[in-house]
């Protein structure tokens, strides 16, 4: 028996054994019922996910970077999460980076690249991985050579390592300091880990980046106050953030947004603390960009 034959994510699912002959409604019902167990499986991993969040937040606060490394669907989910951080949290592009086996700029997936452990290590080394960084290896199987090579490179450089997989006791989990192993069971379409496994990994990555950024002060209450108002739609969203945070009327919000140059945090502190835009900026600078602390300093 091959090692992959024993992987839970590669097993057949008896509930969907007749998938090709089901009615459309039954196909969707089975998929929906199987998907319901994914959040519960993620929930069982919350303690180690919390450790990972704290590790990431501490690293980023200390000047480190976060790297996602993966192949196939797992890698593309890492790319998505990395790409969403600048517009959502106002982070510089280099703070959260993604490495995808086969490259980021191809129109067709190059699945063969995932077998090259040396390439994974080399590509991460090219990014200058170092102590103080965090590298998150993402692989549903938990055994992808490209990801394992990158994690070995990260460990050699003194970076923290985290594994996200969907099989317990995986080589990736054993290679990492923290192993987030979300056991979602066999897929509706056997071996298609873009389904439940992909959903689980997306949920975990959502948690890692969102909670870490909140701990860095990029969230006030439940508002993404470091978002970049770079177009009309986003400016309107930023305006709503200020209104929701302060309870101010439209005219007050518009005036504060104009005075702050469209900077959400500055507008909020300006309104809630009753200070000028310059004073609001100074308070935010002294509070490392944390709105709550900047407001407490005004008491």
Quick description:
By secondary structure, this protein is an alpha/beta fold. It is 51% helix and 8% strand.
Any key phrases for this structure?
Helicase, Ruva Protein, domain 3; Rossmann fold; alpha/beta; 299 residues
Structural class designation: alpha/beta
Instruction: Provide the succession of SSEs.
Output: HHHEHEHEHEHEHHHHHH
Number of helices: 13
CATH superfamily descriptor of the largest domain: Glucose-6-phosphate isomerase like protein, domain 1
Low-pLDDT residue intervals, each spanning 5 or more residues: none
Multimer state: single chain
Major beta sheet summary? 5 strands, parallel
Helix percent band: 40-55%
Classified by CATH, the class of the largest domain is: Alpha Beta
- Beta-strand percentage? 5-15%
Give structural notes.
It is built from 13 helices and five strands. Helix 6 (145-157) links the parallel strand 3 (134-138) and strand 4. The chain has two domains: 3-215, Rossmann fold; 232-296, Helicase, Ruva Protein, domain 3 (Orthogonal Bundle). The chain is globular, with a radius of gyration of 22 Å. By secondary structure, the chain is an alpha/beta fold.
Layout of strands and helices, then pairs:
Elements: H1 24-35, H2 37-43, H3 46-61, E1 66-70, H4 72-89, E2 96-100, H5 117-126, E3 134-138, H6 145-157, E4 160-165, H7 171-175, E5 178-181, H8 196-215, H9 232-246, H10 250-259, H11 264-273, H12 277-286, H13 291-296
Parallel strand pairs: 1-2, 1-3, 3-4, 4-5
Helix pairs in contact: 2-8, 3-8, 4-8, 5-6, 9-11, 10-11, 11-12
């Amino acid at each position: 028996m091959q090692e992959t034959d024993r992987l839970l994510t590669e097993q057949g699912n008896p509930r969907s054994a007749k998938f090709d002959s089901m009615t459309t409604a039954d196909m969707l019902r089975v998929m929906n019922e199987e998907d319901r167990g994914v959040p519960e499986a993620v929930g069982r991993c919350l303690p180690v996910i919390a450790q990972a969040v704290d590790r990431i937040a501490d690293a980023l606060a200390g000047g480190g970077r976060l790297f996602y490394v993966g192949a196939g669907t797992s890698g593309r989910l890492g790319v998505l999460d990395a790409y969403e951080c600048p517009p959502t949290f106002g982070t510089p592009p280099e703070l959260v980076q993604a490495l995808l086996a086969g490259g980021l700029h191809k129109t067709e997936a190059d699945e063969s690249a995932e077998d090259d452990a040396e390439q994974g290590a080399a590509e991460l080394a090219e990014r200058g991985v170092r102590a103080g960084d965090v590298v998150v290896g993402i692989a549903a199987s938990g055994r992808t050579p490209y990801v394992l090579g990158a994690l070995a490179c990260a460990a050699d450089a003194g970076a923290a390592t985290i594994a996200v997989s969907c099989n317990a006791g995986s080589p990736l989990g054993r290679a990492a300091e923290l192993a987030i192993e979300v056991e979602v069971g066999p897929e509706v379409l056997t071996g298609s880990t873009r389904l439940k496994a992909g959903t689980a990994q997306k949920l975990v990555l959502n948690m890692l980046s969102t909670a870490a950024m909140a701990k860095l002060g990029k969230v006030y209450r439940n508002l993404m106050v470091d978002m970049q108002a770079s177009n009309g739609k986003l400016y309107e969203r930023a305006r709503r953030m200020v209104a929701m945070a302060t309870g101010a009327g439209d005219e007050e919000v518009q005036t504060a947004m104009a005075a702050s140059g469209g900077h959400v945090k500055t507008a909020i502190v300006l309104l809630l603390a009753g200070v000028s835009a310059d004073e609001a900026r100074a308070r935010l600078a002294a509070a490392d960009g944390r709105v709550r602390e900047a407001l407490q300093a005004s008491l």
